[in-house]
Please model this.
Amino acid sequence: MYNDRNKKILRQILRKEMPKGENILWQRLRRKQLGYKFFRQYSISKYVVDFYCPKLKLAIEVDGISHEGKFEYDKNRQEYLASVGIHVERFNSKEIFENIDDVVQTVYFSCKRLEGNE
Model:
């Protein structure tokens, strides 16, 4: 169910061609800077999420140009992830470009809240 080997090539392409907003957020999430291990372009069943913390079952999605016109897909993915107990935080690229510190703080507080629910 998690990190499907069949999606390995897709995940590699997505990491290599990461949009700027995702890259900016990744620089703040990587190497346990918030105290939690995040993976980027992580597959869960048939879906690939932008960032994922397995310990907390927290997925982070960055909505940008690649998400335009994909409302139904995003809705189905959100419903599936919720059905398997994964919490999803969504941000748009504009939020990241204009308020990265607020975005990171929101992620941090989500981590702390979810850690308390373990």
About this structure: The mean pLDDT is 90. Strands lie at 39-44, 47-53, 58-63, 87-92. Helices lie at 8-16, 20-29, 71-83, 93-116.
